[in-house]
């Protein structure tokens, strides 16, 4: 959860002693000068070099620069671990209050249950019995100290993360998000942190980059980054304690607020590509969601109960975060090669083929349409979950030595046929419009042809993924022609950067981009190299950097590699959302 303190080498104006440890001298920080380990280094949990003789790496040249980078990396790593410990301790403390006989399991989704029917039993250690606290004062985030960053998050960062989410004015627009920022302190602080990092990217400065003298004011702002993260975690801790107060009742409103904060932290981790810290947030969000909606059929009833004839509609937050969580759950299941833990909710929350057209009416109690949020229709996410189920079955059969190649191909064939039929339907522009047309279209509206291209890229990536699942047995070319899929994708991807908000749309297509690029033959790889170069500094921010790293790693290995393996090649599980 931590951010690299890139400003650690910038003078802070504090006096420094020539008798301090070599670590503090290198970092140009004031040293406490106590031995054998100074308090400054001990607080950061980094190596304290306090020998009398000048280290050989203090040469004013290459070795010293290398040590600077090594210590910066250690500061970042230790800060991240401290926050992770606090987060886990916070969750365990809440769990102990509510379930004394249960203990926290730190197992990851890949190591834990994969049933999907026991999704309430996550690594939080079980469900959270909750009752609302009475007479709790309402507190608003301190906008006065961060007005510019709050607006940057709302106007730019949120649009960058969700370029397809453009609800029309008649549906209330994105006003509900502003209300959430005003009322949810943990979410506000993590949003400010993400906005700060986003500004760094826009200025062409990464957290590992070298500070320049002209960026003194900027680094003053960056120094607030860790403080914002700490504030967010502290506020979340308060909310979790409130949820885990003694009692057996559940306050759905409070639960939703905490789930929003946890998902926001998950998005922060993914956006900053902070390895796989997002996994603990996903566990927590799932645990909360199954308490907010204990039984999938209750989803529609809950939306109806929330209806109060007010505008904007009060269902917007739960619909948005439910869509995000289900989307993340399915994509993470590909990374872990396990069944989605919330799979039994898919049919009720995001039905595979919605029977109504939302362009005809504003129905905030109806099905959630993923095209409104992520640029892919519900059918695609359901099919991706089906492909994951096939992959899980194949791995289980292979593990037990009972895998039958004809049976695998028999199971894959109807999936391939369905995807190809859907692709033909999309190409003929026969898809129903999934967004209500806004009579007042403001800003960068995604073109209809762009939406068609995005749908096609997802479907082509699904076909390529299915082909790899069937391998090493070559699939019938009439059913799955991976070369045809990859050629089509390589033709469509270069069309996006030249379109309005094309770079943001490519980020939303990170998963199909990674799949198609990793599987592309050598003669087609220049297409993806050029595509990544066109993104410029965006390749240094969040998941696009990880996409690029994965692609380069797969190409360098030049060996058969399934998609799950690709998404774990960097030494940690990657979530491309």
Kindly list the characteristics that best describe this protein.
577 residues; mainly alpha; 2 domains; 55% helix; disordered N terminus; Zn2Cys6_DnaBD; nucleus; zinc ion binding
- Helices and strands, in order, run as HHHHHHHHHHHHHHHHHHHHHHH
Backbone structural class: mainly alpha
Helix content: 55-70%
Query: Strand content of the residues, in percent?
Result: under 5%
Q: What's the number of helices?
A: 23
User: What's the pLDDT, averaged over the residues?
Assistant: 78
Q: Low-confidence parts, pLDDT < 50 over ≥5 residues?
A: 1-16, 96-140, 206-211, 432-439, 473-478
Q: What composes the largest sheet? A: none
Backbone shape: globular
Kindly report the oligomeric state of this protein: single chain
Distance, first to last CA: 17 Å
Number of DSSP E strands: 0
Number of domains: 2
Rg over CA atoms: 25 Å
Biased composition (Polar residues): 100-125
Protein name: Zn(2)-C6 fungal-type domain-containing protein
GO molecular function: DNA-binding transcription factor activity, RNA polymerase II-specific; zinc ion binding
Main location: nucleus
């Amino acid at each position: 959860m931590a951010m690299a303190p890139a400003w650690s080498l910038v003078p802070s104006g504090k006096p420094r002693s020539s008798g301090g440890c070599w670590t503090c001298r290198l970092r140009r920080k004031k040293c406490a000068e106590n031995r054998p380990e100074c308090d400054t280094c001990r607080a950061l949990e980094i190596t304290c070099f306090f020998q009398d003789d000048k280290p050989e790496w203090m040469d004013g040249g290459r070795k010293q620069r290398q040590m600077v980078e090594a210590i910066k990396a250690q500061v970042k790593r230790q800060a991240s671990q401290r926050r992770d410990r606090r987060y886990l301790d916070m969750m365990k403390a809440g769990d102990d209050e509510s379930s004394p006989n249960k203990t926290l399991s730190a197992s990851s989704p890949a190591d834990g249950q994969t049933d999907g029917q026991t999704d309430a039993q996550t690594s939080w250690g079980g469900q959270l019995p909750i009752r609302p606290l009475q007479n709790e004062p309402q507190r608003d985030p301190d906008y006065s100290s961060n007005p510019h960053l709050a607006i940057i998050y709302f106007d730019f960062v949120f649009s960058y993360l969700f370029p397809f989410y453009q609800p029309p004015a008649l549906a209330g627009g994105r006003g509900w998000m502003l209300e959430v920022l005003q009322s949810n302190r943990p979410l506000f602080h993590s949003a400010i942190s993400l906005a700060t990092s986003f500004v760094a990217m826009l200025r062409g400065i990464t957290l590992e980059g070298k500070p320049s003298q002209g960026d003194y004011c900027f680094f003053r702002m960056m120094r607030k980054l860790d403080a914002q993260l700490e504030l967010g975690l502290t506020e979340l801790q308060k909310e979790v304690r409130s949820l885990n107060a003694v009692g057996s009742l559940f306050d759905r409103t409070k639960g939703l607020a905490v789930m929003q904060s946890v998902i926001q932290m998950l998005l922060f981790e993914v956006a900053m590509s902070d390895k796989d810290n997002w996994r603990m947030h996903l566990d927590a969000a799932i645990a909360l969601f199954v308490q907010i909606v204990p039984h999938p059929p209750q989803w529609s009833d809950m939306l109806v109960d929330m209806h109060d004839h007010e505008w904007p509609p009060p269902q917007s937050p739960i619909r948005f975060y439910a869509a995000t969580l289900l989307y993340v759950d399915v994509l993470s299941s590909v990374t872990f090669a396990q069944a989605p833990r919330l799979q039994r909710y898919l049919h009720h929350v995001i039905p595979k083929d919605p029977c109504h057209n939302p362009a005809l009416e504003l129905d905030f109690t109806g099905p959630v349409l993923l095209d409104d949020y992520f640029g892919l229709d519900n059918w695609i996410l359901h099919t991706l979950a089906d492909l994951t189920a096939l992959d899980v079955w194949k791995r289980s059969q292979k593990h037990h030595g009972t895998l039958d190649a004809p049976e695998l191909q028999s199971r894959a064939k109807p999936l391939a046929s369905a995807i190809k039929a859907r692709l033909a339907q999309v190409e003929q522009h026969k898809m129903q419009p999934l967004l209500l047309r806004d009579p007042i279209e403001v800003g960068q509206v995604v073109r209809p042809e762009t939406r068609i291209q995005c749908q096609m890229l997802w479907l082509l990536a699904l076909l390529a993924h299915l082909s790899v699942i069937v391998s090493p047995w070559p699939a019938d070319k009439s059913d799955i022609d991976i070369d045809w899929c990859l050629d089509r994708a390589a033709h469509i991807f270069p069309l996006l950067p030249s379109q309005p908000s094309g770079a943001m749309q490519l980020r939303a297509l990170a998963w199909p981009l990674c799949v198609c690029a990793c599987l592309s033959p050598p003669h087609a790889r220049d297409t993806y190299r050029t595509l990544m170069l066109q993104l410029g500094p965006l390749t240094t921010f969040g998941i696009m950097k990880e996409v690029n790293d994965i692609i380069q790693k797969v190409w360098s290995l030049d060996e058969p590699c399934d998609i799950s393996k690709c998404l774990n090649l960097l030494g940690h599980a990657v979530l491309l959302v």
